[in-house]
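NAD(P)-dependent oxidoreductase
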Amino acid sequence: MTIVVTGATGHLGRLTIESLLAKGVPATEIVGVGRQIEKIADLGVTVRQAAYEDPAALRAAFEGADKVLLISGSEPGKRVPQHANVIEAAKDAGVGLLVYTSAPKADTTDMKLAAEHAETERLIKESGLPYVILRNGWYIENYPVDQALAQGLVGASGDGKISVAPRADYAEAAAAVLATDGHVGKIYELGGEAVTKAELAAEISRQSGKQVTYTDLDVDKYKELLIGVGLPSEAAEVFADVDRATAAGALFVPRDDLEQLLGRPATPVATAIKSAL
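Predicted structure tokens:
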């Protein structure tokens, strides 16, 4: 059995490899693929250098692979062609299972950020490859505690609940799918404890002893703020739209799927904040 983890030099990829090792998967059966492979040289697994833009390198990296984890690209606007390269390389290699990290409710949400994920899911289904879709919810790391302490939280999500969990929980869930059988064709909606941004600010305040506020803006004002702190207009529009959709429930999902894969409760928000502090 050979398990390939793409994007292995990023945070989620490294954590997934660490979780596979913790589950007893031999290092000799794990291949980490990414751009800066020196970042994972210490893990003891096979490393292969390949970028999503390089089909030939991907085909070489997937040689002999039984399962491939496609961790979604981090560059909005480029994801679909990048992911298409991975899917084609996996087909050429005769991979037995392709696992993809998608976005919450990708097939039904109107959140702009999810459009490329929905298209990737379609390509995967049309490829004929056996697949599993992991619709990862929001990482709690998306709201850095140090930044919240310095500046407070700002957004346009109103009272919308966000099902958050540490990145490590999502990595452990991915490792569970890769290391066990019985998941082919399944789509998992993954999310942890659901909180509003105001509740998150209150918990940071409680634990830190410093007052942290959440300022709720309308979507256009929030977009202007994001542009004002240096985000390109297109990126600001996407992130402001995330909060618009969040206010309508786009980032709320039950914990059931995540906790099923983890075999334990998802990490509570309070625990994650304590760790960050």
